């Protein structure tokens, strides 16, 4: 009977170890590795703009004092880089606060027409100035509860991309509707499209399709990771499909709370 008791203990120990490793150890190990990659990528992303700014400043210092104001273009290049760094730092902070579980969503009743109109008032003139058409179709009446600031951030990220990756003459359409108890916010564009291979990866941190093509468009591959995080905080899903005949459709789906 001693042998049987030992056997039972042994089996129990293995079962507990197995369950523990599935439940906790594995995610912890993965997230350590991811965390290390995340910091390394972040440092790398910050180094580039800092080097540009440093070079511009060193160049300015070689100029005679009185001529410095003639150097508007290097000052504005440096300012652009500072702007990009600001966005990057804001996004990094958002993701690390998300990782640390300290972002609480604040659900409020939102009038979708009003909410989307505010975003449109900013993006419509921008689209027009780039000779692109931006349309909005809200098929939901009444109010829906979500975090209006966070969801605005998510929509703005997707809209920014739609504009960035759609050439002149293109059309971007935002559609807001309800389906099967879910709120669906979709953004379609007639831009460059995304290959099936890349569709699986664009939501990962720092992933960018074709770095050389994208180097002109700025960005650092954090936008969609943040949009996904925000949608998940709302217990929703985000996905991407082809638009026909060309371009991309991003869709955010969140369960409706009244
Ligand atoms: P980025 O700051 O580089 O735009 P994102 O995470 O927002 O980072 O997007 C990741 C990559 O997905 C982009 O670099 C781009 O290659 C691709 N992408 C995103 N949205 C679109 C779109 N509407 N059309 C084509 N490609 C897109």
Automatic annotation (TrEMBL):
**Signal peptide residues on this chain, from the entry's feature table:** none
User: Transmembrane: present as a keyword of the record?
Assistant: yes
Q: Name one GO molecular function term.
A: phosphorelay sensor kinase activity
Known EC number: 2.7.13.3
User: Where does this polypeptide localize?
Assistant: Membrane
Give the catalysed reaction(s), semicolon-separated: ATP + protein L-histidine = ADP + protein N-phospho-L-histidine
Q: Does the keyword Nucleotide-binding apply?
A: no
Give GO cellular component annotations, separated by semicolons: plasma membrane
Ranges annotated as spanning the membrane: 2-20
Q: Name one GO biological process term.
A: cellular response to phosphate starvation
From which residue to which does any coiled coil extend? Answer: none
Q: Which UniProt keywords are listed?
A: Kinase, Membrane, Phosphoprotein, Transferase, Transmembrane, Transmembrane helix, Two-component regulatory system
The record places domain Histidine kinase at 41-258
Protein name from the UniProt record: histidine kinase
Source species:
Lentilactobacillus hilgardii (strain ATCC 8290 / DSM 20176 / CCUG 30140 / JCM 1155 / KCTC 3500 / NBRC 15886 / NCIMB 8040 / NRRL B-1843 / 9)
